Amino acid sequence: MAAQRERQIVETPTEARQAEPGPSVLALLAVSTGLAVLILGVVWFVFFRT
């Protein structure tokens, strides 16, 4: 459990890492991957189409 010492909160490394990535992290990953695929498709279409 977090303790307060001299106006600072002191936590163990395990306690400090307890946050879980929410659905916004998954959405960001999905959107950025989709944009990367779209951009690479446009680059391929413009430069490498025969």
Task: Briefly characterize the structure.
By secondary structure, the chain is α+β, with helices and mostly antiparallel strands. It is 58% helix and 12% strand.
Description:
- The protein is α+β, with helices and mostly antiparallel strands.
- Helices cover 58% and strands 12% of the residues.
- It contains two helices and two strands; from the N terminus they run ββαα.
- The mean pLDDT is 86.
- Strand 1 and strand 2 form a beta hairpin.
Please specify the SSE layout and strand pairing.
Elements: E1 3-5, E2 8-10, H1 13-16, H2 23-47
Mean of all residue-level pLDDT scores:
86
Strand content: 5-15%
The beta-strand count equals 2
SS element count, helices: 2
Q: What are the secondary-structure elements, in order, as H or E?
A: EEHH
The first-to-last residue Cα distance is 64 Å
Query: What strand order characterises the main sheet?
Result: 1-2
Shape: rod-shaped
Helix share bin? 55-70%
Main sheet, how many strands, which sense, barrel? 2 strands, antiparallel
How large, in whole angstroms, is the Cα Rg? Answer: 22 Å
Q: Structural class, please? A: alpha+beta
Low-pLDDT parts are: none
Task: Provide key terms for this protein.
50 residues; alpha+beta; two-stranded antiparallel sheet; 2 helices
